[in-house]
Batch of 2 targets.
Target 1
Amino acid sequence: MGLQAPLWRATAVFRFASLAYAAVLLVLNRTNYSHLGWAWGVLAAMTAWTVVTSYAYAQPSRRTRVLLAADLVVTGAALLSSAVVQNAQSTHAGAMPVTATWVAGPVLAWAVTAGPLGGVSAAAALGLCDIALRQRPVSDVYHGTELNGPILLLLAGVGVGYVSRLAAQAERALQRATKIEAASRERERLARGIHDSVLQVLALVQRRGAEAGGEAAEIGRLAGEQEAALRSLIAAGAESSLPSGELDLRTLLTPETSASVSVATPAEPIRLAAEPARELTHAVRAALDNVRRHCREGTMAWVLVEDEGGRVTVTIRDDGQGIPPGRLAEAAADGRLGVSQAICGRVRELGGSASITSTPGGGTEVQLQIPRADQMA
Amino acid sequence: MVVDDHPMWREAVARDLTAAGFEVVAAVGEGAQALRVVQAVSPDVVVLDLQLPDVSGVEVVLGLLAAQPGTRVLILSVSGEQQDVLDAVKAGAAGYMVKSVGRAEFIDAVQRTAAGDAVFTPGLAGLVLGEFRRLAADRGPAGASGPPLTEREIEILRMVATGLSYKQIAERLVLSHRTVQNHVQNTLSKLHLHNRVELVRYAIEHGLDTGMDGPGASRRGS
């Protein structure tokens, strides 16, 4: 398990460190030992076992139940050997057994492998050994410091076990997510290929139709409309993820593309908070609606979206017959909404500005500017 | 030279070009083939479909210009103006046309490309505007990486993006048609320059440039 590897490494480091600590203690507390030579023997055995387990646990395939059980047994034996090598009085008085903190090794190993339950089981087993070592009457156990050791073992078992389980769950979730992402990228790639060949054919039909004239031209025109629609659909679909609450203005405006509407945007996403983004889109749609309603059939409209850092600018120009001078102001003064409210009102509410310029016969140009809430480069 | 993997398109384009008086020296269906053939046929203009099966459009543009520096590349695409079109234009293409345009517009675009003019669609103008803005924003800490657009050039680019023809722009700004064309051409040259500078800087930063002369080294490597 990839995410658990650090836990195993930590266990190995702990064992070696505890080994060193136990050796230091053995030297310092020589007097506590009745059979010093054997104590060193136990220490040597502990060293050997630490090396073996550190090597064995390094590979997931070797982390078998047999190894875990052996770990527990060997550690327990080393712990209990203190009964033989230490002075009875020292043990009784609460001196550290010859294993010192090394005894937590199997607890960590069981916790990483089998979660909190495993950690607790190993801790309980070793804790009992530790208490048995003290040979105190049961009632006294509660009053003395003998329980400190076992309780700390239990804590370690539960804590590390829980962390290990979380790591395993995270790993599984990550694998699932990676698989889903790979699958969807593959689908996207296939879809792109299909879309491209569809677009190729539609474009060809439009061209041939225009050349042939008559009914074929009509079919060609329809094909052209579908081609524009499909193109904007693809453009809208290929979006990157954005922080929540923000939208890419391009994906909101590009679908407006059609045979008579062209939308020009930068290559990078234009990030806006969701609310202003949607309001701005409504304003743009209102402007395009105006073109459709008031202008001749076949009038073209161009939408340019620019990201100027501190603000976003959308320009909508059409080549229709234009609005006679004074008409705009008239409409606003008369209280007839339409242009005034739907477009300018919305934009002003967002803290931006709107301007409409028009010349008779020269088309109309609507410019909307919205400031960004926070400065983004 | 016509490069398009769709046989019907290849034929249609070649036919239209021949009917308009151009000489079609080669019509190939693969990027690799195009790169192999280009030096032998020495085309003045290459009409290139961006969606080729074997090599990416950008690589083909780079390869064509490296093999035949004087050639002008006109890009055709069905998928609309997006990052890949911008990348191809940055790499050195002279212009871009949507595939579904009528024959007359297409021939006009090829003629303008052959004459050395840049061919911009409104969408491409929007992409280029965005690219220069991005470069200006990124430029801060790294220092100058090439000339920015002048006010006039930005103004003209915005007009192209909102669908005005060069003639209409010339009228509005009281300039000559030729001047407007030059401004647009300058914009494209600046874009190419920025791209080359970026490539060289990238090469230097990543230790790819071991020679004393920067640009020569990067061309050697590609």
Target 2
Amino acid sequence: MIKISIYEDKEALRSLLELMIGSAEGFAVVGAYGNGQRVTEQLSRDRPNVVLMDIDMPGPSGIDCVSRVKEYDVDIRVLMHTVFDDDDRLFACLSNGADGYLLKKDTSTHLLNALHEVVEGGGPMSPGIARRVLQTFLHGSPPQRQEYGITPREHELLQLLAQGYTYRMIGIQCGISVETVRRHLKNIYHKLHVQCGTEAVAKALRERII
Amino acid sequence: MGKLLPPLLLYSLALFGGLLNRTYAQPPSVTFDHLSEKDGLPGGAVYSIAKDRQGFIWFGTRRCPARYDGAAFRSFLFPETYFVTGMAADSANRMWVSSDRGGLCRIDPSATRLDSVPGTPRATGYLYASSQGEGWFSRNDGIGQINFRTGKMRFYPLPQTTYRGYKVKGFLEDKQKNLWAIGSDNGLFRFDRRANRFVCVLGRDCPDPARRFQVYLNRGCVDADGILWIGAYGKGLLRFDPKTNQFSFLKIPDEPNRITCVEEGRDENGRRLLWVGDERGLLAFRPEQGRFYYLPDIRPAPFEVNALYRDPANGILWVGTSDGVLKYNPQDNLVRTVTLPPALVRLPVTVKVIIADQRDTTGETFWLGLSHTGLLRWHRPTNQFALIRYPSDAAETMWIEQASDGKLWIGLRRWDYRGDGVMVYDPQLNRFVANAAAERAGTLFSVPFVDHGLLDSQQRLWIGNNDEGLRVLDSRTGHLLPYWADSAITALHQGNNFLTDLKADATGRIWLGTYQGPYYLESPTHRFVSADARNPKEGQPEDPATNGLLIARNGHLWAARWGSVTESRPDGTLLTILTARDGLYDRENRRLAEDQAGTIWIGNFDGLHAYQPKTRRLFRLTVSDGLSRNNTTNALYIHRGTQLFIGQENGLDFVDVGQVNRRSPIPPIVVSSFQVHEQERPFDPNETIRLRHNDAFSVDFTTLTYSRLPNVRYAYFLDGQGEQWHNIGSAHRAYYTSLSPGHYTLHLKAADSFGHWTRQPLQLAIDVLPAYYQTWWFRSFVALMVVGLLYGLYRYRISQLVWVLRIRNRISADLHDEIGSSLSGINIMGTMVRENLPAGHPSRSMVERIVEDSRQISSSLDDIVWSINPRNDELSHLTARMNRYAAELFEAAGITYEIILPEAIEPVKLSMEKRQDFYLIFKEAVNNLVKHAGASEARLRISLENQQMSMEVADNGLGFDPAAATERNGLRNMQSRAERLGGELSIHASPGQGTTLHLRFPVSA
């Protein structure tokens, strides 16, 4: 049973999400909130495995909330729920520790898959996000880049992603399976968190990696 | 005095004792210049003269005070004054004026305004500035005193008499600083400072009966010994010793003795004398003789002298008369003149030859050869002359050579055509002596005309006649030395080639002056060699005819020729040719002399010229400088390198050549007028002149030499306008228009005719203030305004962009928040409904549509929002999105595909509109392919070349007939978008052959 907390300011959508997840097999909604003002308190009470997080919320934004969640417990997975896949704020969330994202247009079909994937540690990546991840690693501070820098293979993969290639295409291009592509992506997410995360998040993540 | 004189002089004194009282028995030989109304002097008569601290001379005239700078007068007409009898400058250089009207007046130091001093009596006279800083002036009822600094006044009444004019005719200060007032008829007063009153020491008011008598006094002076000299009406000149109170009257014999003023001065020889003015003219009083001499012929008519002023700084004597001003400037009397005593010899007579007696070690005895009658011995210090008569009065002296034994060899032209042409005079025996050589020489020519003569170091006597040429004989034996055949002489002088001069140089070579130029005697052949011949024709003077020769101390030969004076090396090579262009005023150059400094003096018919080879300057002295006549061709003799004697008619002139070189320095430069836009402005040389931009200004400057010679040259330059002195000759005005703003220094200087420049050029600081539009703050202001405006425009543009961006962002946000969420909700609800509907439910297809459409709308919304986002203007973002879109679609449809994208896309940007059009064409094409083509393979190729974007979408599907294209596949829509892009869209398709869509459009346009 995967325990889910939902943060979504639109009440209609929130109740739908609650309904949808709640009615799915293997999932339980432990909390549904309109804002993230008391996120730490709510986490300690609800103890979810995954947090489904809207970005644009009154009070602390999704970006802040990601940090707080990760500061509270780095093992709680955060899935960002957004309309756009190349939003600055989305990238900020990913940098702060979010483990993946789901586009709202795909909610009905992909929500449950996405929740599963996030628990397993992988997340999708759009060309826009991939481009920014690349920039982050290319322009990050040298010592960090050395220690937590991406491998040439990961670099290649990110470049292809940024040019719009699908996992399948990448897999063909690089002679690897789609699964391997996903694993690489998972690693990249982790390294991104260390590279960009706030001090506390980064530390927690670092410890986990090491 | 006799003990100090050398024996020869004693002898002379004994011989000419009878002439002794003639010494100085003549008026001083000085020249006066006259300034009158013609020269700009306001009012003809001058009653007072003063000098201010800058050096300007001021005249109080009948009409008003006037300042004189040597060239122009500046008159102060208003307020009206009249009979300005007193002027004096105070320590602040304010000029105080006493006159018959307007009370005491004052002229400010910049000499632009005359102001009445309030509280002074209307009529004041004879103002005097004492050394105590107080002004004394005469009133109709006594004496007034004014403190120049405070303006405080005092009054000392004098007893009333029948005299109705000013009670006092002037003030004097003796060496003990006692002040003396010269009473018009009350007598002479001494000011008792302690008692603060005037005490009469002589005349009507004197308490001592022995000294009490009626005397009408006039102006006076204090001489260097402290003696008071005062003009006494009818009684002559009053001499008063202030120490002993002793007095005497010196009378001019046979004259009414109406002396008006006295001033101490010096004559042309530097001897002290008193200048005395009376109602008929100017006199010199020689105190040691006790005699008065009228100076004759100063003016055509008698004149009254009103005031005398001698400038102690430069010795210039200024005389205020009833007819203008007279000026005697000793500097102008550079040339002194000695006139022969009239009784000595028949006049006119010309001094043809001058030589110093070599045996008089004092160098003060001279032999003067006359044009007739005889020879004069002249002792300069005593000015004694003795005549030695020739056998005939008709003998003209041509040359005199003094042999080493002191005997004088004299060459004559015997115009009586009789007797000997050469005579020998023995000064010791005091008579002519017989000499074989002289007798022989004097009869060698067809007439007794021995025009040239020379005794050389080998005791040879060289003689020459103009027509018949040269002869030479042994001076001891009288034997003729036969150096040439007669034919050689004839050949040299044929065609009127006169022999004009004869000279020997230091090597003993004999030089001849002829009309064909100089010749020399080649040794030992005695051949005549033309000195000019070695020069190229074009390098020779226009006319070779030579009148006189000079062998300079450096051995160079100077030739005075017709139209030129030339210098050549001993070998004849010409070095210098001076002509009228260099400043020779006359063509007949005849005499030459060289002084100690190497200056070559040239005598011709129009002045005495001097050429300084070092500076290459030629200057000229004339009658204006004191020459008796401008004709200086008679005789030119340099004595001991420093004294130049010029033979003249009835006398001679002499110049202390050293004085030419030792001229007193040229006085400092003063500014006489400063004008802005032709308007006189107050001027203080110590203060910075402030001008506005565009002010035209002129500075008249001058040096106060008060010389009659217009030989001062001026120059100026302005810092910041080039460093070159601008020579303006005798003009003395600097004029500038519209200087750019800034600091300038105007440098002014002057030079005299001998080329001596003022040591310290006058420097005037000038500030040209900028116009408001030239000031830095104005320019900064304008610059700021421009920058501000540009910045404003920039800000406006930015804000416009920002505003557009904000709208775009708000639209994105609204779509995102409102519609996006709602669509997601619908989609979720639709999906859930669908899940719960049993299969085959009639509403199922409807629900499917809801789910699908809401997803489509979401997707389109996503596209729209994406394309609005400015960050996605980058072309690479677009291609990435296209790639992802196409790939996902092809993968979902199971189509094998190939996507080719540009490797590295340069940072090219597409506008939002273009991007949208491009993307939608692409989307339509891909969607058509997936939905309708039924293809198994697809190819997407996007490339950018030469700013041209091209896209190719191809498949191996069914194809279609482009002519039968329907509305449904959106072809028209794609076409119109391609047109908007300014590009072209072409579709190649035929049924069963697949479809190829090609789009091409420019990126930049």
